[in-house]
Design brief:
Shape: elongated
Radius of gyration: 29 Å
Largest sheet: 5 strands, mixed
Strand content: 5-15%
Number of helices: 14
Length: about 475
Amino acid sequence: MAIIIVLVLLVLGSVVFHFISPWWFTPIASNWQSIDTTINITFWVTGFVFVAVNLFLALAVFRYRFNKDRKADYQPENKKLEAWLTLFTTVGIVAMLAPGLYVWGQFVEVPADATEVEAVGQQWHWSFRLPGEDGKLGEVDPRLISDLNPFGINPADPAGQDDILVQSNELVLPLAKPVKLLLRSKDVLHNFAVPQFRVKMDLVPGMVTYLWFTPTREGRFDIMCEELCGVAHFAMRGKVRVTAEAEYQQWLAAQPTFAQSQNRYAGDADQGRAMYQVCAACHGAAGEGNSQLNAPALAGQSRWYLKRQLQHYQQGIRGSNAADLYGAQMVAMANMLQDEQTQANVLSFIDSLPPPKIKRTDGDMQRGRALYRNCGYCHGSRAQGIYAMNAPALTALDAAYLRRQLDYFKQGVRGSHSADFYGAQMQLMAQSLHSEQDYAAIIAYISSLSDTAGSDAATLRSAP
């Protein structure tokens, strides 16, 4: 009787939990309502079978419970029972497979008026490419991928010159227009999934896969990688923002084309020298930094990273937290460099400065090397920084600054702003340091790499 009661309670509990469960589908935001219908049909078929089998099992345990006066009746064959079982099984399988095959037929038939957009996955971030005025995406070749050409676009293909490049983690799409998303991976298996769109597909290295959908609701939706792709898989997030056509066109016009990305402001170092004198008061005449003033070295750092930090200070993404006292000081200084050309001049002058000599620190080098493996995926094996990963060089930063920033990320002082996507990733990675010994070990190891990062860092600093 105990077994019978457990079986009945299991069935009743499962049915009740199904109807009162807080875990239901997110509100749909695309044209794929048929996928919800297919999943619901599967739930009802499998749910019916689950209830029927377990109640039958409870009935069989009760009816055929042990009785010393009753003999077992063995029937090796029962054609009638087998016929009914075959019929019910066939109906159940058809009920589950037929809707899925119908929806899959729609899924692979892309509307002729769908706009092609490329989503590129790489450990551990997303970037996007849209067609320019010609309406076509240019050719790509993985062998052409570099810090200056992170998408691997063929510069000899005229169709690629006006391709629109989006290297942030947010893709903007117009409302009620079909989109064919071409999926490409630079390294390992990834998966593109947006729960509200009810679509997902693997990104396979060496292949271009695709999916399509029509956004039906404005809003911002999470992009998730649902394929284990490495140590920071959990941090590989992005956003899709669906807007009205006018707002979409405004966003589109603000994105650079491939041709523009290859022809950024070079900047005039001589003019930048004069403007840099304001920065020199804290960061040093040679950009070597000043630990007494809590100012990091600028020389030896990637140009694109310095530019992004200036923009983050100007936009309130960095320096707005009440606990970031030194960042608050930088906000006023960054606002003196609002002009694009002025920024380019100052950054060109900083580029001309030799990397500073960083003092080595003490720590468990073996432990530091092990801890740094996670960092090396983004910042490079020699902490030289990687443009395609949006990760700055670490070898030009002194121990005090590195420690402070790790603390800031761990405490949420940095990386908490909604627009600081890469800072949010660093918040998660900083949690891997659990003790003072961990801090000392990893900083000591990074300081030991400063002598070997020079040539690589010089190349990376000149990236756009």
